[in-house]
Specification:
alpha/beta, 7 strands, globular, Rossmann fold, single chain
Length: 265
């Protein structure tokens, strides 16, 4: 197993992406600490992990609250002794599908402020502990919106670009301490949207603005990928396992392009 004896914190661990990654980490031997805002969704993922023989614990944590993040991480360190992997997969509803010229400053700023703040808080909190052990992996997640010029994504595209930039800066500062930082960049994942999460709300709203159904929106999108398909939750989870493992020990300050070729570079 690739992650035997590793301890991993997954923020947004009850969500579609966070849950899929948590289950893959646990399958590969990691003890996973699921952090999020909703007890029921966290318990669902933890139950699935433990049913399959894995180890999981849950905690209600506001990943936009520094004290909450620090206190939870301190409790994990006290219990587990160290933190080896930190992955932030939280999400919030935000507006897409409206031209920037028609977007309010509040709707523009929301995803930028939320995604940059939460990734900064969770990554730096983990880094302070990882530095002591001179090892660790910080994983972030973005989308092709970080590079696209025509996505009608509002502030979300800039938020993704900021997360990728933060990941590179973390890698530069933490590399001398043996810590790697890598970003995953999948395109739209219909499975995640259909799971009833904030992702569905975002795409539902965008579909309404385009006057099409959600199914019609998703049916139009694969044609713009080189592989003619979307990435799956399994694609993201399996890549996250590899990137968090020692087999990816030379990878840092980079973005794993999981877009199925909707974006190249």
């Amino acid at each position: 197993m690739l992650l035997t004896n590793k301890n991993a914190i997954i923020y947004g661990g009850g969500g579609a992406i966070g849950g899929a990654v948590a289950m893959a980490f646990a399958r590969e031997g990691a003890t996973v600490f699921l952090a999020g805002r909703r007890t029921a969704s966290l318990e669902t993922i933890a139950h699935k992990i433990m049913t399959l023989g894995g180890k999981a614990e849950i905690a209600i944590v506001n990943a936009l609250d520094k004290q909450a993040v620090d206190d939870h991480l301190a409790s994990v360190i006290e219990k587990a002794g160290r933190i080896d992997i930190s992955f932030n997969a939280i999400g919030v509803f935000h507006i897409q599908g409206i031209p920037l010229t028609d977007l309010t400053i509040e709707d523009f700023n929301l995803p930028i402020s939320v995604y940059t703040a939460t990734n900064f808080l969770t990554a730096t909190a983990a880094a302070r502990h990882m530095i002591k052990n001179r090892s660790g992996v910080i994983l972030t997640i973005s989308t092709p919106g970080a590079l696209m010029a025509n996505g009608m994504a509002g502030g979300f595209g800039l938020a993704n670009a900021a997360v990728e930039g933060l990941t590179r800066q973390l890698a530069g500062e933490l590399g001398p301490h043996g810590i790697r930082a890598v970003c995953l960049r999948p395109d739209a994942i219909p499975e995640a949207a259909m799971a009833g999460s904030h992702t569905r709300e975002v795409f539902d709203y965008r579909a309404k603005l385009m006057n099409v159904s959600l199914d019609e929106l998703f049916s139009m999108m694969p044609a713009r990928t080189l592989l003619q398909r979307f990435p799956t939750l399994s694609d993201v989870a399996e890549t996250a396992v590899f990137l968090a493992s020692d087999k990816a020990g030379a990878l840092t300050a980079t973005v794993a392009n999981l877009s199925c070729g909707s974006i190249v570079g």
